[in-house]
Amino acid sequence: MKILIVEDERKTAAFLKKGLEENEFVADIAADGETGVSLMLQGNYDLIILDVMLPGRDGWSVLRELRQRQNQTPVLFLTARDSVPDRVHGLELGADDYIVKPFAFSELLARIRSILRRGPVRQAAMLQVADLEIDVQRHKAVRQGRTLDLTPKEFLLLSLLARRTGHAISRTLIAEQVWDINFDSGTNIVDVHMHRLRSKVDDPFEIKLIHTVRGIGYILEHRQG
Question: Which residues carry this modification: 4-aspartylphosphate (predicted)?
Answer without folding.
Answer: 51
